[in-house]
Amino acid sequence: MKVLPTARILIIDSQSERREILRDALTAFGVGGIHEAADLAAAPSPVQADILVVYADDPENVPENPYRDGAGAPAILVVDAPVPVLVRAAARGGYDAALGAPLAPRLLYRRIGSVLQRARRVVRIGALTAPVAVEQLPVEAVREEVLSPSH
């Protein structure tokens, strides 16, 4: 995927061994910048990441996505839970995607790519549908321009 070599990924995980395994696996896949922190409070501020990967230990105690209002990076939740519990935890926390643990690094790599592409499409569509300032011309001036014999 073309977006991943330049992507900046922030891995949030309380277990340093898991962070290291994810970092090494994503680096082997050719991902650009990978940063890590034990929790959201320990993350660099402001977060300079294109995507957050949050690994939660307990599906009932999932940290809230700090960018759930769409003002920052998209976020992926990773938690060891059955699919219905995983989906509810992700929705409750405001995550863009969710994956069950144990996690295959290739699956995470693909999910990161799809979430980044979806986020970029949304930004592009938002730019296309944003209101555009249009100069208001008097109706008579437009009518004269359209009806003038010189055209």
Key words describing this protein structure:
151 residues, alpha/beta, Rossmann fold, five-stranded parallel β-sheet, 5 strands, 38% helix, 17% strand, globular, CheY-like_superfamily, AmiR/NasT family two-component response regulator
Question: How would you describe this structure to a colleague?
Answer:
This is AmiR/NasT family two-component response regulator. InterPro entries: CheY-like_superfamily (IPR011006). With 151 residues, the protein is α/β, with parallel strands linked by helices. The protein has a single domain, classed as 3-Layer(aba) Sandwich (Rossmann fold), CATH 3.40.50. The protein has helices at 16-28, 83-93, 105-129, 139-147; strands spanning 8-13, 33-37, 51-56, 75-79, 97-100. A five-stranded parallel beta sheet has the order 2-1-3-4-5, sandwiched between helices.
Shape: globular
Mean pLDDT value: 79
What is the correct CATH architecture?
A: 3-Layer(aba) Sandwich
CATH topology: Rossmann fold
Tally of distinct domains: 1
The CATH class is Alpha Beta
Distance from N terminus to C terminus (CA atoms, Å) equals 51 Å
Low-confidence stretches: 124-130, 132-137
How do the strands of the widest beta sheet line up side by side?
Answer: 2-1-3-4-5
Helix proportion of residues, in percent? 25-40%
| SSE-based structural type | alpha/beta
